[in-house]
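Quick check before the chapter quiz. The format below is the same one you will see on the exam, so make sure you can read both the input and the output lines.
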Amino acid sequence: MSRSILLIIKNSLRKSSKNIIFYFLFFLLFPLFKNVYALENNLYNIEKQEKILNGSIASLNLNDIKKIAKNTTVQIEGNIPGVGVLVERKGIIFSRGKKRYTVITSWNVVANSKNNIITIITPDGVEHNINKKSIERIGNIDLAVLSFFSTNSYSSAKIADKKKAAKDNDIYIAGFPFPESAQTDRNFNFVNGKIIANANISITDGYQMMYSAKISQGMKGSALFNIDGELIGIHSNSILGNEINEQLLKAINIKINTGIPISYYIQFNTGESVSGDNTAKTSDDYLLQAKQLIGIKGNERKIIRLTTRSLDLSRTAPGYFYRAFAKDALKDYNGAVEDLNEAIKIDNNQFAYYFNRGVSKDHLEDHKGAISDYKKSIEFNPDNEVIYFKLGDSKFKIGDFKASINDFTRAIEIKPNYGYAFRKRGAAKGNIDDIFGAIVDFSSAIRIEPNDYKAYAMRGDAKELIEDFNGSINDTSKAISINPNYSYSYRIRGLSKRRLGENKKAILDFTSAIENDPIDKDSYAYRGVTYEKLDMIEKACSDWREAAYLGHKDSKDWVKDQCL
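Here is the expected output.
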C-alpha cells in the first residue's frame, strides 16, 4: 500500500513541475507512510496465517499446523495456571484502536478467579489483564470464554466442522505445561495423538472426546487441532491410568485424554441451547455412556449392554476394558479375561488391562497366569505397593512362600504402614517355620490397624505353635470380639483350650467355628479328637466322618481305625 502511494507521487512529479506541492505532502506524510507500511506488513502476516487456516489438507504439513497452534494459543496465569485459544477478533485489524479478543479455555481454569488476578500471555509474550466480568461459563460444561483488549494484532483459530473429528483421525494439542523442576518458564508444547472416540451424546462436563497423546500436566484448556489446522475441541484432562482403587483392588481408569468438542462453543456463540443429543446412536455414544458408569456399583449390567452395542459397531480397547470391568464385578471372570485379551490385542500399552486381567485370573485360580500379568504391570508402574502385594499373594497361593515374602517386603518398603502386607508376610513366614518372625509381622499389622481381627487370629495361631496357649487365647478372643463370625478364631482358641485341658470349652469353640463355617473340615476333625479324649467315641466318629467327607485326610484313617 505505501509503496503504491510513493510511486504515484514520483510519477506525478515527473509529469508536471507545477506539482511542487507533492514535495511538501511527501515530507509531511512520510512518517505516516512508515506506520502504514508497518501495519501493512503486520496485516500481510496475519492474512498469510489466515490463508494457512483456510488451506486444504494437502497444503498443510506438521510445521504449518504447529505454526497455527503457536500463533493462536495463549498462556493463562491465575489461581490455576492453564491454556486457552484465540477464537475471535473484533475491530479493524490495521486500526491503531483497541481490538477485542475472545479466548476459550476450561471452566476449571477460571472458575475460582474472584479473588485472583488472571493474566493472558499472547504469542508475542505480552501480558494482558482480564476483565473478570468477561468470564462466562458455556452451559453446564467445563468450558469458559473470556476476553481482553489490545492494540496489537493476533490471529484466531478457525473452528472446524464436528464431522472432521472422528475415530482414528490425527489430533494435535498445543499448550504450556508446567515447567520442569530446573525451569521457571512454561514453554510452548505441541504434541500429536489419535482420536479414540468423539460422542454426540451428552456426557457430564462435556467430556465427549477421548484421544491418545502424551500430554504433560498444566495443559488444561489447550486447543485440539485437526489435520487442517482447525480447532476441534478443548483439552480437559489427562488420566495417567496407573492408579488402583483400594477398595476394589482393581484399576478403574485407563491412560487416556478427555476433551470437549468445539460444537458447544458454536452453540453458545450462535445463541442456541448448549446441549448434546439425548439418544445414543453411534459406537462412541455408547462407549462414553458406559465410561460414566464405571466404578458405580449396581450399573454392571447396564455397562455390559452399552459396551456390547458399542463393540458391535466398532471394536475399541476401552470398550473391551469397560465390559471386562463389569463382568469381573459380576464374577464372570472368564468373560473378563476374554475381553481383556481383546483389549490387549488392540492396545498393549495399558497398565490397567494387565493388572485387571491378573485379578480375574486370580479368581479363576490361574495364579501363574496372574503372576505373569502382575509382573507386566510392574513394567508400567514400578512403585505401586498394591501390585507387589497382589504378586506376593499369588505366589503365596502356589506355595512359593520365600518369593512371596520378597514381594510383600517390597510393598512395605513402598508403603511402610501397609498393614495387610505385614499380615500376609507374617503368614508366609509362618509357612516356612519362621514363627517368631511371623509374630513380629502380625504385631506390626495390629499396630497399624488395631481392628484387624485376622491379624489377631493369625498371631494367636502362631502363639499356639510355640505353646503360648494363654497368649493365643487372648489374641483369638480379641479377634472374636471384633468379628464374632470369623470361624478361624474359634478353631484356634479351641486348640489352645484343648492343649490346656479345657476340653469342654474347646468343644464349644469348635462348635462355634462349624456354625460360622459348615464346611470347616479342620474344626470337625479337632472336635472329633476332643470328643475322643472325653471317651465320647460315637460323637468323635460322627465328626471324623464329616471331616473325611469334606476332604480331611487324617480323619479317613481315624474312621478306619476306630469307628465301625
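If your answer matched, good. The first helix runs from residue 2 to 15.
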